[in-house]
Amino acid sequence: MEKEARRNAKEALVKSYREANRTALKGQTVFTGSSLMEMFPIEPWIKELGESAPVVYNRGVGGYQTEDLLLILDACVFDLEPAKVFINIGTNDLGVPERTVEEMIGNYDRILTQIENRLPDVKIYLMAYYPVNFQAAAEEVKPLLQIRSNEKVALANEQVKALAKRHGQRYIDVSAPLKDADGNLKAEYTVEGLHIKPEGYRAIFADVMRYVRE
Known about the structure:
The chain has 10 helices and 5 strands, in the order H-E-H-H-E-H-H-E-H-H-E-H-H-E-H. The protein is of the alpha/beta class. The protein has a 5-stranded parallel β-sheet with strand order 2-1-3-4-5. Helix 7 (about 100-120) runs parallel beside helix 9 (about 150-165). It starts with a helix and ends with a helix.
């Protein structure tokens, strides 16, 4: 029942995106990915900047893996015909023991290829994955973080960086303000060792906006 409820919630969110896209402005900036993107309150924060602020749409879906995003690129990207796309997808793949980083990158490659084919002038920003914090994690999250470790995140980031280079797109890493002295996600910024509190997103907001405005 819980799994079905989560699936229904995701489907409802994607449906709401499709509805919102009908009246959205074309040629703007889109953020897409999984929960670490969905939870980034970038839309309301940008609105606080006033009328001269750029227009950004958040189309993240919590729990999604690369293969899921492939199926809804219309709702999360194409319908909006964006000039820029910021992507943070793949962290959920990293938590699946039987899935290799190479398999995840293969799906990511297909995502980029489809976007580039549909929107040949688009600029794509592949965002580095954020660190986690095993020591500050809730007990129920620790088994996941033994798989989705900072070592695995670092390996995946190197491959995402190489993928961006192959496609002639941008790899960006805004995670420095989130890290403690040991390279972990700061305890005060994490919900349960994995997800990020609004205070953490505030810490990277200026860096992100620098890329949005360029």
